[in-house]
Write a structure and sequence with these properties.
- With 108 residues, the chain is α+β, with helices and mostly antiparallel strands.
- It has a domain of 68 residues.
- It is built from 2 helices and 3 strands.
- The chain is globular and about 50 Å long.
- The N and C termini lie far apart (40 Å).
- 9% of the residues are buried.
Amino acid sequence: MEKWHSVRCIFRHPKLEKSKEEFLYEERILLWKASDLKQAVEMAENEAHQYKESKECIYIGLAQGYHTYIDKPESGSEIFSLMRDDDSPPEEYIDLFFDTGGEKQKEY
């Protein structure tokens, strides 16, 4: 029986002209219906190789999968979760992993 899984893959793009950094990294999380997590990761990696060709970037070979535990995704469904042990207090943790200053994002 197929179930929903999500897989996060990481890519490296060429440097943007305006950027002082050498590379631009992208994290993509896609949803897959597969018989198990192994198959979902294989599907995601196949797609990652197609994506890298179309975007002229490099798939750096990191795929992290998550079984969603849902039968039918809907608004608000959890599609990815990653837990990590760390001694950092909350503000330092966010700065270390999510708000390094290099993110291409807008504040809302």
